[in-house]
């Protein structure tokens, strides 16, 4: 038998029905590590657009205008998803503007990618130069993140006056993002046979006061540039004990601190150490937050154009990668962020239209 | 090349130096599941003794006199060890009666097995009929225990008026044993993204009051037939959390209750439920304790013969299997029980002699 021909790429119609475009994207499976095919499909759809310079680097695609405008705006989104859960291919419910697309990636964040693509095709002569970035490996460890890689290897491709990350925000503007820090608190004791427990000292019991302190802790609400960020400090993992008959001499609690973007890493660490004073802790991971940047004129201009009020972004997002390059960045995309990664994730057609229309209004 | 010949069995000299006998036993590796070779060696050493009827069943060996005495005493010990830790072959330190054998199984419990073998060889016409039991799979899950299997399949082989289990007791009599019960306490919450922790409820934090309660609990000391048992209730394992960015909705704490032999299983469970009132718990495992049986004449006779004072056994041991058959049983063996399973376990020659001589005095 002859070898099978390569599977044909899904056709992406960038100027047709936006909901159908999202369906086509969802139906092109692209779990992290497996983004080549969706990148191929996006590349094939963008290639005919001669107003865009197209650059492919691994599975990252950068499409940009070169009109010599005074300002440049980045519109960025990732093409990968978390693993599917029987929710690909997509299904749709409702009709017309009430139509909803259900399936893996519909919310996080192929709805945003669909909007990026529609805007890329529609705006042949934007008022500001535009850079569309489609990147891989957002849903896995940060070291693989396609946007971070481009930032390291080709930072010129990210240069801009402003960036919009099309992560789901219910089609409203969410400014900046909170930082996230992880600390490991280690409780120690003395091992002993559990039949002679008085010979030992129980490290799991020693975690009691730590957990009580975390439960009693009231996290701050911090206003930054008019947005109120809500912090949180939580045990997210605990493990202790080696056998059913041994008094444990070690118990480890992983604490996650989400901190407002008024703090840098050192200030966040100092706060964790203050709250958990007396415990043996080690900082294992930190991702700095991003200030909303709403005090900059271009951000105000964006807000005025898209309408509505800005809200704080509680989760950490890749806007922080732009913020670290001193590029103000906001989150603005279709879909409910609380449905990201949920098995029943979905994206409403109305959100797709809201985001697309707002961006066209601002950039047209 | 021809196949290698089967490795020859270690020679066990049952009437020579007791310490050398222990060395030979330790040097015959017998981690649980791998007891065939040591059973072969013991079988080969016992076969020439025509005062003993020898029965092999799997890797269990039963050797017994059939003299028609009014009473029968069981001397039992297991041949398996926990995994070695670079401590086989054995080493010895000191000289003469101060000699000490170091190595896996020296304490738990090949010292006891050496004493069994020496007594088996020495007593050709004991005052009471004797049953020596050497069994496998004591150090692993109870369902594999060789003594338990014989109790189920051939209970006649266990019949006796009294049993001595030669587990390490520092060569003193330890009566009965405490029971052990395990309970799983499940704390529940509501999962949420840790950046929006107020949307969830933290199940790990909910473990704080449980751990505080366990830490504050004072365990009872209970007198049974003149021996004071010391109980204990401890968290021995804790696990919660599924990811570094998720508020955990589940945390499980395994609690181990060691209870005095005045309580049956139902009374032990009632006590656990009383102490942990308000928590969702499930009993996952229980092994009933054994009363010391020191109120029986044969036990008093044993105590008088071996000398010294009886002490309570805090750990659970296979004496409970005899107790369940209404056979009074005590623990009496060489080695420090707190060194059982320790990487630096050892057995003093003096303990070997003390135990052997006491048994010969009582049974001779």
UniProtKB/TrEMBL annotation, chains A, B:
Source organism superkingdom: Bacteria
Catalytic activity: N-succinyl-(2S,6S)-2,6-diaminopimelate + H2O = (2S,6S)-2,6-diaminopimelate + succinate
Cofactor: Co(2+); Zn(2+)
Keywords in alphabetical order: Amino-acid biosynthesis, Cobalt, Diaminopimelate biosynthesis, Hydrolase, Lysine biosynthesis, Metal-binding, Zinc
The keyword Heme is annotated on this UniProt entry: no
Keyword Cytoplasm: no
Subunit annotation: Homodimer.
NCBIfam families: dapE-gram_pos (TIGR01900)
UniProt name for this protein: Succinyl-diaminopimelate desuccinylase
Origin species: Microlunatus antarcticus
């Amino acid at each position: 038998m002859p070898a099978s021909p390569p599977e044909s790429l899904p056709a992406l119609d960038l100027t047709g029905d936006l909901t159908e475009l999202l369906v086509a994207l969802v139906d092109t499976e692209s779990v992290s590590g497996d983004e080549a095919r969706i990148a191929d499909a996006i590349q094939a759809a963008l290639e005919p657009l001669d107003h865009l310079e197209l650059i492919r680097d691994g599975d990252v695609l950068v499409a940009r205008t070169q009109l010599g405008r005074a300002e440049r705006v980045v519109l960025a989104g990732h093409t990968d998803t978390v693993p599917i859960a029987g929710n690909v291919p997509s299904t749709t419910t409702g009709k017309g503007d009430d139509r909803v697309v259900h399936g893996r990636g519909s919310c996080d964040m192929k709805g945003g990618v669909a909007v990026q693509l529609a805007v890329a095709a529609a705006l042949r002569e934007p008022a500001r130069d535009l850079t569309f970035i489609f990147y891989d490996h957002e849903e896995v460890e940060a070291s693989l993140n396609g946007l971070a890689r481009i930032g390291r290897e080709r930072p010129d491709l990210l240069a801009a006056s402003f960036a919009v990350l099309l992560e789901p925000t219910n089609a409203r503007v969410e400014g900046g993002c909170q930082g996230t820090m992880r600390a490991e608190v280690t409780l120690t004791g003395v091992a002993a046979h559990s039949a002679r427990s008085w010979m030992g000292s129980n490290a799991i019991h020693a975690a009691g006061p730590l957990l009580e302190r975390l439960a009693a802790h009231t996290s701050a609400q911090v206003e930054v540039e008019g947005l109120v960020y809500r912090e949180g400090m939580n045990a997210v993992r605990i493990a202790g004990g080696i056998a059913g008959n041994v008094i444990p001499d070690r118990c480890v609690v992983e604490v996650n601190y989400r901190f407002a973007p008024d703090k840098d890493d050192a200030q966040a660490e100092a706060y964790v150490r203050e709250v958990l004073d007396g415990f043996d802790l080690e900082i294992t991971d930190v991702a700095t937050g991003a200030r909303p940047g709403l005090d900059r004129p271009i951000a105000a201009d964006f807000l005025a154009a898209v309408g509505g009020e800005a809200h704080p972004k509680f989760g950490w997002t890749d806007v922080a990668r732009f913020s670290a390059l001193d590029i103000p960045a906001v989150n603005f995309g279709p879909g409910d962020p609380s449905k990201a990664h949920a098995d029943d994730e979905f994206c409403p057609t109305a959100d797709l239209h809201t985001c697309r229309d707002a961006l066209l209004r601002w950039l047209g």
